[in-house]
Structure formats: C-alpha cells, structure tokens
User: What shape does this take?
Amino acid sequence: MQPTNAKTMADVRDMYMVHSMIRRELGLLPQLVREVAPSDAQRSGIVGAHAKFVCDLLHLHHEGEDAILWPLLQKRGGEEAEAVVSLMEEQHHAIETANQEILRLLPQWRYGGQEGHELAAALDRLLAAVLEHLTVEEERILPLAQKHVTAAEWRQLGEHSMKRVRKRRLPLAFGMAMYEGDPEVVRSVLADAPRLAQLILSFVAPRHYAKHAKRLYGTTTPSGVTRSP
Assistant: This one.
C-alpha cells in the first residue's frame, strides 16, 4: 500500500551521513581503548566518556528505526520489506546485546585501572556486527524508504534521536555527523530547524567536534571510515 496523494518522499541522504559517523567513531574506538595505559585514569575517562556517548547514539538511532521505520515499511512494502525488516530486527537485537556488554564493561575499565583488552575485544565484536548491518541497510532498506516513506515521516527518525540527546550534547552529536557530511545534505537537515538553532548548529557544532576530536584523537581531522568487506 503506497502513501495516499502526491507527497514528497524521503530524502535518505542524511542516513548515509549518520552511518559515516557511526563507522568512523565506532571504528576508531577499539584502538583508542587499547592505547590507554591502565594507570592513566584521566585518559580512560576521556575515551570512556566518548565510548559511552557513541554507544548511546547508536542505541537511539536503532530505537527510532524500530519504532518508526520498520512499521511503515512492513505496512507498505509487501513481501520485499517483510523479509529485510525481519533481518534488520535480528541484527538490531544482536547489536543491542553487544552494546549492552560494552556498557557493562565500561565503568570498571574507566575507574578500575584495568587493561582494556576485554573492552576492546567487545568493541571489535560490536563494530563487526554494525558494519554488516549498515551495509545491508544501505543496500536494501534505504531504496525501500525512498519508495514508501514520506519526507515528513522520515524527519521523525532524526527528531526521535535529537529529542533524547541532552541539549548540551546536541552540538557535539551534530558536529560528529556533519564532519564528513555533504554540505547540501547538512543544509537540508537544518532547513526545518528554528533559525537560532540553524545558526548555532551551523557554526558551533563543527567547532565543538573539532575540539573534541583534538582531545580524543590528537587531531581535528580524524579519519577512520570503515566498511564491511
């Protein structure tokens, strides 16, 4: 069943921007953890806080898809959507299990002065599951979304996550996404935001992420986009 009337359909380019952010930040984390000396509480605090933030963003991103995107595709996409949505749900469950394992390990690593091998291995497992998932989503879900999901419905995905991120953390979250984003896509995402929010996010968010990246990676221009084979 197609959406009724002539409606503007989803522009899914912002999802590629989010996926690039997830690939980069999650892909760089295992080595960051491995490089922290057990006695360096300050560094483990910095890396651990970032790991927690990335895991939380990943959870919110998938929570929005579970609540909003999958039901729409199941309702409108027929057998083609049903098969891949079932796969997406299975992958989300596996990713959430891996994510929760990391959140369990993080406090004892951040504050217990332990080696990071167990946590880094858990991050490797999460990364492998996420990379496989993102590839399938881009190949099979996003084309379906372009056909069956309206632009207004698609915006609800981003709004779902942004409403649940603490306001003081929004500039960092958006700066992380903007970093490798197509400027045209960034402008499109910001177009519906209040004017003040547009100004803040356009100018503050990139600077916020640059400062964060310098502290975390030692450079304002990290690179680490990883794709599954």
Remarks:
- The domain at 13-217 is CATH 1.20.120 (Four Helix Bundle (Hemerythrin (Met), subunit A)).
- The chain has a mean pLDDT of 92.
